[in-house]
Task: structure prediction
Amino acid sequence: MTASSHALDHRVLLLTPTRRDAETSKALLADHGIESEICRNINVLCEEAARGAGALLVTQEAIFSSTDQCLTKLVQGQPSWSDYPLIVLTPAGPQSAADIAALAAVGHMLLLQRPLQIGMLISTVQAALRDRARQYLVRDHLAEQEAYAAALRESDRRKDEFLAVLAHELRNPLAPLRTGIDLLLLENQARDDDLIPMMSRQTSHMVRLIDDLLDLSRISQGKLTLRTSTVSLGEVIGNAVEATRQQIESAGHQLHVAVSGPLHVTGDPVRLTQVFANLLSNAAKYTEQGGQIHLASERVQEKAVVRVRDTGLGIPPEMLSRVFEMFAQVDSSLGRAGGGLGIGLTLVRQLVEMHQGSIRVASDGLGCGSEFTVELPTVAGMPRSGAVRGPEFGSRGPSMNVVVADDNVDAAETLAMLLRQLGHHVRIVHDGQQAVEVVCRNRPELAIIDIGMPVLTGYDAATRIREQLGSRNGVYLAALTGWGQEEDRRRALDAGFDAHMVKPVETSRLASLIEAARRGVSS
Result:
């Protein structure tokens, strides 16, 4: 705050019927060290008060002589911290009911009846200024709090952006690792060797961690949307069991699943599968080798209730209220073999709540296992028909000419090696302009184009290819990117792509892409 604004905030504004009265009052206040300023009419008073004032000293005649309502508007339009000390000098004698009502309409004020003692006037003004000074302390505190809150919001926004970028950037080195492992699996199908499957499981686990990190960032930014339909909860649970089967079996656990009758819910089947896969994965992670995991579902009135119970580490009482918080974990000295970022349960709760459901946890303490209970509203009606089973990865069809465009040399090479192993002819380029030239010259059946390339982005490359060859040209364009939101998919399709794939590409997705390219069907 500048010195001039400080002076304005602590001055007394004077409005009297005559200039002489105003000058007398100003001199009297000055004798007691109080700064004041004379206002010639009520409009000037309101204008000056808006600039800053410690108190307003006004005669009743000055208020009633004006038909302008600016003083009432000024008092009633104050910010929450402000309550202008308004001192009104009233004439001698009893006040009429009409006068009292008119003054009350202006707002909160102090009434001093004339004639008055100088000491009473000075003490009243000083008390009003002290009261105003306390209001300024509240104002400054609120401003500091708002600045602090704004800084926290900005920090939180940057954190979310960082997590999103981090997850995206981690996808890039994972892509050649995932593809390379798939290639090794394809080449060594006859080997009785646990090494490659182990590498595959751990890479898949890393991919899931990154996906969870990115999804949590999307939710906190309000960017994650659900693709809802009527779905079978039994199918969702089955998909979650399949997604975590390797992890559960590799730890020697026994999984017991009891699905009670057909239960239908409105939800996103992918996200609901993610919820129960996370709970099963969490149970497997924090249960000692050879433990028991139980998953059961049932209808309770109008709700579908799913319980995931384990015989694992358990949760101490003081942690029960915190397990769904970001980065919250049971004592780091306990059961850390499973690792984790401490975001899985946070994501689970967010996804469940997005489905209008609830989740709770119960545990009798350390060593006593845990039970997570998810409740979702049920709906009547049949779920949408299940997806048609896609082609098996490794199955060979007619050979195709394929262009792979990616500035990440390792990613391009491993993807090309995998496609060649499947019997396809592959050419590699490393920037968007080369992609346009090679695709337009050779007209391959399939072009897999990375979005973030130099010279031309993948979007620009796809647009130019469509412009030069026409939309119906027999070239199937697939976008490859680390960004997997619905808006990213729409942008890719708008640019001219037929399909949108998120790194690292799963083998089943690649097999479906190849089949779609053969049939010329968008995916």
The radius of gyration is 36 Å. The chain has 16 helices and 17 strands.
